[in-house]
Amino acid sequence: MTMTNTETLSASESEARLAAAASAAAADAPSDFSAMMREKLLTRQAAMTVVAILLFAYFSVTANNFFSVTNFLDIIRAASFIGIVAVAWTYLLIVGELDLSVGSLYGLGTIVMSWMIGSFGLEPWVAAAITFAFAGIVGLINGVITVYVGVSAFVVTLGMLSLLKGLSFVISGGYPVPYPSGLQSSLFALGGGSLFGIPAQAIWLFGVLLIGGLVLGRTKFGYWIYATGGNELAAREMGIPTKRIKLIAFILVGLSCGLVAVLNGAWIKSANTTTGSGFEFQVIGAVLVGGAALTGGSGNIYGTFVGAFILGVVTNGLVMAGFAPASSFLATGGIIIVAGIIDVVLRYYGAKATIWRHARG
Questions:
Q1: Which of 36, 193, 212, 234 is deepest in the core (most CB within 10 A)?
Q2: Residue 287: helix, strand or coil by DSSP?
Q3: What are phi and psi of 199, to 5 degrees?
């Protein structure tokens, strides 16, 4: 009888403890869920998406004719040139390298293409192919000197920036280089036309975003990119060809500059030495605003797109609001600084949310 009472008491205590544990778990679940959601939402990409929406809403209210289909397409077109190169630059930054020569390479590419068409009479498609290949070779040179010779990417690409800018002045003489009058080519429609009212540049951008995102997030090459930037020594010990990965990233940046040079030429049908001035800051700004870290190992294509869109909105919105075009440089610098501050804040509270969630668990 005593044993039975003891067993009954033990069973009752067990049930009571289970009930108490269940109640505690139910009480803690909302806190755990809230911590998990804070961890997911406190990311650079989520914050920058909200910033992009708020900026678009602000300029829609304050700037004349900003909120219109025509102007929205202009924003997408302007963001397309930045975004295409920024996708490749994201790859490069993730592996822990950088390229400061993208603006000069973009500008020189437009001049080379126009020069070959106007001075040598090449068919536009042939000139475009040569321009694309030339830009890829420049990227290859940057990569070889940086990765295999061992010179800092900052030094190499800074020197290349000056070299390419000087070469553009030598070729053009400092004057615009127009295409021959009346020249016709299917390239102009493919690179500078529109499809159902959507600018061709925007279609190219979304194609690059789609391919770049899939490769980075869904393929072994994308894993190698992150592994190389996260810990190059460990990646090399795992058998990942880190030097080759970095070289490919440099080449992709060069090819992306060649692509936007061709698209610009097909659209404008002219070239100018001012093309590409300050372009490198816009590309770097888009990538950093999008959440990629200068230390390498992190970043994604969606964030880069959001960063490019923010810069496009700000540049267009300031002009529509009556500010001088040069004010976009002030805005770009300010956005980069603010993005850095937001990154620090989000990392702090994101880490705090993670610690809290694990502690509760």
A1: 212
A2: helix
A3: -60, 145
